[in-house]
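Purpose: get a first structural picture of the assembly so the mutagenesis plan has something to point at.
Setup: two entries, given in the order below. No constraints added.
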Amino acid sequence: MKVLPSDKIREALNILAGEAKVYAPMVQGDASGYFQWSDNPVGELLLDTLNTYMSPKNIVMPQTEDMYKFVAQGKDAQVTEVVYAGGPRIIFGIRSCDLQALHDLDLVFLTKGYEDEFYKARRQDLAVIARACYQPGPACFCESMGVDRLNPQADVVMHDLGQQDFAWEPKTPKGEEITAKLQGILVEKDVTLPQAAEMKTKVDITGLSEKLAGMFEDPAWDELASRCMNCGVCTYVCPSCYCFDIQVTTRGDAGGRFRCWDSCMYKEYTQMAGGHNPREFKKERFRQRFLHKLQYFNERYNANLCIGCGRCVIMCPNSVNILEVITKLKEVRLDA
Amino acid sequence: MSDNTAKAREIAKKLLQEGTVAMVLGWEKGDEPYVSAPTVIRDAADVDRLVLDEYCIHDRAALLPDYRDRSEKIAIFAKGCDSRGIVRLIQDRVMPRERLYIIGINCPGMKDPNEYFRAASGMSKAKPAEKAAKCLSCQYPNPVIYDEIVGETQQPRDDKRFAEVDKIESMSADERYEFFIKEFSKCIRCYACRNACVACNCRTCIFDETKPQWVGRSTDPVNNMLYQIVRSMHVAGRCVECGECERACPVGIPLMLFNRKLIKDVDQLFGPYQAGLSLEDDALPPLSRYRVDDPDEFM
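Result (structure tokens, whole complex):
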């Protein structure tokens, strides 16, 4: 099997970065995420931790993204430039859970008769070098959310061999092309793939979506939401939360529209022009997040929007835990 | 079960059974041993969920504004920092003193569950600290206001509150600008610092305003800086140094550094002051108080 040796990883990234924008897990100060690789990258390459703090969704959905520019004089307005950020991109080292989240984003932005051209521009030439996950952490529960952590649907799958050597397994023609570019880097070796450790954290969501359809007004939400302080940490570290807002900036006659991440945790998110807010209090906002994750998305796409990466569980400043929320929702007796 | 937990349950049980309060704001254990999470107990039968251990780090007062438009009496567990937050909320007329039964906790310092979770989950290589960073300079480990108290009286820690501020002040203007830009560039505008803050209790926050929109929603150094500077200026003289903003920040921005710079400025401009120490009139924050002998010349 082909192997990418640890001391050649930077060289490999440099080669790939010559022809595409390459994104790799990196750490910047205290926080980690997927940033663009270059001769002088913004952070240190990070391959010996599990998930990054921030998910890789910024690659296809940057937090702030220009859409178009315009000039407006009186009643005349002209769009001067539409910003499509196309071109080849490669994600290096994405984990199976995050890749599943990317497939969720594809469902939202590319299916059901709606194609989001800005998303498509970033997505269509994206190659994925994924990393199979052999050693899950205590907050990992991707298997319960239907993720096959050892066989991610990627162009190349890497398997940890220890000491940051990776077995290299091309899966698609695109993956073969990338492999060809790394001819001088990859070495042929007899390797034994590691034993996968058991994923200890589990939750059974069978029938949950159907049950939640009858729980909108359930009093359980009051207590579940009491701990939440309505910040946006969970939604912004989540690899599959995709809500955005469209905003405008102007300077004189010129201006531009951009979109930026938004969060159902924010009061402003549902603020209506007339002053009414259908999600005035935190219970409504909290409920929206969990029903979107566990019911609405399942109903519309027949897929799980929560992919079990555990980031929200680890990062919530007030220890809101989606596993605990699921368990408590399942315990509620609806016939009582 | 520790003595403190047993005591906490006993107090809560009595208060709920006798109908003194309608609810108790405390902590319960999460799924992991290093997680204690904020909880609300409304029934004496549920008091065994309560814990009082070294992971009860959250500022329990920060969620009190959720109950501002109601009338029931609330029991709240409060460490030194939380108690100062409660004083601030009473002073800001968010919550009347009569609605609260404060169960003080003499606090030896806490561990940060998020720090432990990040390490245990393989997300961070940093070794979690025995005492959270926010507790290291604590000057008021014992509650400043309470109806009942749990735990042994604690000594204040070494006062190194302004050590980092002094470093920033000694930088050249350009270095300082670089430093601020670097830190603010990391901000993802999740507003966790604002929402974790007991001083941030405005009904409608300026950052949620849409007409006009005071701060742009794009994440860029200018708007991030505008957000962060307005936020810390707004809590100047009202920050109780609970450190929750910095602890809640998912990207590690040193927010207490900015808060402490402003605390130092308030000290220098208006005389030494620490927020939330007393309910007396003259203990109001300098910027919330009218004085005929105000040092500012326009008065």
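Chain A has a mean pLDDT of 95.
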